[in-house]
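Quick one, probably user error.
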């Protein structure tokens, strides 16, 4: 018989993390643990207020499925029993992990994926003044790929300062829906001149039509506008990339479907994350192999990580150990 337990954890960040929607000093995560026949499967999620999620709501949704889990609910049935989002992500990843532990086969093999290798992740620079972000970039200028949080007013000055202080790093930017349609064209042209390779979610969800038919000197990536596979067709012609996050797709099962649909539609792939521990990054690492961009730096932003966490060598992430997940 299976037993589900759910736990809320608070993980302090190494420093205040700011995006266009606000700041935080800790990451609030929820961990689902399923026990069966001496084996333990775990999954971590990060409830996100932008999507109407709370820690309390996610815990309640998970606990409501405890009887179904005990009765043998599998991953296929889970996709029908719970909508995409953080709660389903925790359960889906816990079920993958449990299956791997019970079968003695790694998740990548169960999913028909290639054996994982090391992945280079972007490193995120939190939103701040141009001067402060330039200083932060100088400290991280050894990293091959920097992701810059933006907000609208003052963004070109921020990126110019970072480019000057980390001239050898590749740059991508994330506006987190913080631009207006009027800012899009001039900002894009200016950022192209500063070497920026991708702009993530510049406009609010629902204003994607402004991206259709315009010249995009820098490729544009859908984040908040893309949750699961059914969103993909509406992004074609408006975006060049999609950012796949397990907390949006509701787990690895749907994330694999999103990646397949996006590739078939000619969209490039970014694999991202919320700010979580290595337990949240481990399943996303399997998606990141073959992706154009990986942004799985959550543990690098933490004051500490969980036991058996991922091994980072600079910005390179080694494949997850089975003690952690999968």
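Nope, works fine. Designed sequence:
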């Amino acid at each position: 018989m299976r037993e589900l337990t759910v736990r809320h954890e608070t993980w302090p960040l190494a420093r205040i993390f700011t995006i266009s929607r606000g700041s935080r000093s800790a990451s609030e995560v929820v961990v689902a643990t399923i026990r069966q026949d001496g084996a333990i499967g775990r999954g971590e999620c990060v409830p996100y207020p932008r999507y109407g999620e709370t820690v309390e709501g996610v815990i309640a949704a998970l606990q409501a499925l405890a009887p179904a889990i005990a009765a043998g609910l599998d991953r296929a049935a889970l996709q029908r029993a719970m909508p995409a989002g953080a709660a389903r992500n925790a359960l889906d990843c816990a079920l993958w992990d449990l299956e791997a532990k019970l079968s003695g086969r790694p998740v990548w093999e169960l999913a028909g994926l290639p054996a994982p290798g090391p992945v280079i992740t972007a490193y995120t620079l939190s939103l701040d003044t141009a001067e402060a972000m330039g200083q932060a970039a100088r400290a991280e200028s050894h990293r091959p790929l920097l992701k810059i949080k933006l907000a609208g007013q003052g963004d070109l000055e921020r990126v110019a300062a970072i480019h000057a202080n980390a001239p050898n790093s590749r740059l991508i930017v994330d506006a987190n829906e913080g631009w207006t349609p009027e800012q899009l064209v001039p900002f894009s042209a200016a950022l192209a001149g500063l070497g920026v390779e991708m702009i993530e979610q510049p406009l609010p969800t629902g204003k994607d039509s402004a991206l259709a038919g315009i010249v995009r000197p820098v490729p544009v990536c859908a984040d908040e506008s893309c949750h699961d596979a059914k969103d993909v067709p509406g992004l074609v012609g408006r975006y060049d990339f999609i950012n796949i996050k397990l907390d949006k797709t509701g787990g690895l099962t749907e994330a694999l479907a999103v990646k397949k649909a996006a590739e078939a539609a000619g969209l490039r792939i970014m694999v991202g994350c919320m700010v979580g521990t290595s337990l949240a990054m481990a399943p996303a690492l399997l998606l990141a192999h073959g992706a154009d961009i990986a942004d799985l730096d959550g543990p690098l932003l933490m004051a500490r990580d969980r036991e058996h966490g991922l091994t980072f060598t600079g910005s390179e992430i080694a494949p997850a150990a089975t003690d952690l997940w999968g």
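The mean pLDDT is 96.
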